Amino acid sequence: xxxxxxxxxxxxxxxxxxxxxxxxxxxxxxxxxxxxxxxxxxxxxxxxxxxxxxxxxxxxxxxxxxxxxxxxxxxxxxxxxxxxxxxxxxxxxxxxxxxxxxxxxxxxxxxxxxxxxxxxxxxxxxxxxxxxxxxxxxxxxxxxxxxxxxxxxxxxxxxxxxxxxxxxxxxxxxxxxxxxxxxxxxxxxxxxxxxxxxxxxxxxxxxxxxxxxxxxxxxxxxxxxxxxxxxxxxxxxxxxxxxxxxxxxxxxxxxxxxxxxxxxxxxxxxxxxxxxxxxxxxxxxxxxxxxxxxxxxxxxxxxxxxxxxxxxxxxxxxxxxxxxxxxxxxxxxxxxxxxxxxxxxxxxxxxxxxxxxxxxxxxxxxxxxxxxxxxxxxxxxxxxxxxxxxxxxxxxxxxxxxxxxxxxxxxxxxxxxxxxxxxxxxxxxxxxxxxxxxxxxxxxxx
Length: 446
Fold this sequence. Notes:
With about 450 residues, the chain is mainly alpha-helical. It is about 65% helix and about 0% strand. The protein has a three-stranded antiparallel sheet with strand order 2-1-3. α16 packs antiparallel against α17 (about 320-335).
């Protein structure tokens, strides 16, 4: 009896499963009209080219702007216009179809936001020039905010804004507003810098415009007195200017308080992005291909701010990006005797530099070897030949340099490593301590 009941229950369950399988969603085919000819997927933002063929915007813009094609993907005909036109009719049809087939897992595609057009951008930029001529700071501010909003909409909108000369207009406006840094103009100046950070990296025209003496002085003023966001944007812009023009480095260094303002951003950090930009700007200043005397003056000014001590504290625990830049700046500061003296007398210097060998990146390792080499030479010159060697040996420096020669590095770095090994080898019998964790999971390049 029990067996018969079990059989009937099993039969009922089997019938229920068959019914469920029969009710399973069928495979609904997407109509060909709704498929993008490039991706073959359901179009989310259908646009039509000059040839009359409709594509999904993301796919066709990649074809045109990223891949550099000027032909229709389907017909191969050269396009008379590279500007795709939204196909509202097809989009509405797709949306209706998605609603009808919602039960099969098709969500209604959202209505896309309108992208910036060349005529729209040109109109806003023309208004900025007009407001600037009238001295209407608030009008300029409102229009710059509008440009920012357009730039944030999409990558396509940002490219449209850049191609229409926003860099030139903003830099000219920044320079013009720098004439009179009253309270109202100061807010406009910070807003312009904020907008400029959205179009990084700059073209040469924008860099040149921001590199004027008046503009550089204004940037320094914002670095010293601006809001937190203002100082952040100022150093991001400054990093771009100093990275490409030696003359701008010299002009910036001549502005009163410029060096101290940059060092303060490192000593009193705002956020990682600001710290990275500040370190990179300082690196360009302390390692320029200028005369030794000028470089010595700049480094001396940075040393007076206590930058060496702050860098060593940061290097104890920091991200890879900060570590590379901090080591580069430290190596630059060690280019003169005063910098070497400060590093030599700091108890953190040698242990931190040895710790960074082979741990962070090739760049960090090269900077560390360079600094250790300079410190070793300096120690000899002041009669402390054993100091650097003994400290380095205690934290496994000798073994790390040996391994460095095997895993590969630049010729200059290898030469400096060999010099250090020769000097440190004389003291190996007196003290040697290896930290095996430094070599754990180390991957060789061969």
